[in-house]
Please model this.
Amino acid sequence: MLPRPLAALLALAALPTLALAQDYNRRPSFGTLNLSANFAPDPTTVDVTAGGSLPAERLGGSQCVGSIANAPDVRLNYRAGQGLPLYLSATSRADVTLVVNLPDGSWACNDDFRGTNPGIVFARPQSGQYDIWIGHYDRGSRVPAQLRISEVPPN
Model:
């Protein structure tokens, strides 16, 4: 029989770990952008390395797929206005995915918006902090990608 503290510790170790959750409080790996409605240049782009070891599927919803890092790739502080939409997308030679934690704490995810490139259009974007991850299907693998932020959604 194990001592009670050791038994409790082992029981906790056997539980699914919540520490694997995306941590939007961590500093983003590829920087923070501060943009307001009608920003320039449009699109604004950020080169990132997509992927990670954490499955986006556990965030819920059928659109959250791929493997992502713990810390956000990019943080966008956005001030909405002028009735403009916000369009987030990613491009890569690899098949990448997009995961976004919105200012209200909800999650938005996409895969294959245009071909194998993900994108999300927010017709009435919220003002606030958007934490953005670009995922990849090969867990643990990292690939070059580019995040694109625009107020001009594709046709």
Q: What stands out?
A: DSSP finds one helix and eleven strands in the chain. The radius of gyration is 17 Å. Residues 34-150 form a domain with the Jelly Rolls fold (CATH 2.60.120.380). Confidence is low (pLDDT under 50) at residues 1-20.
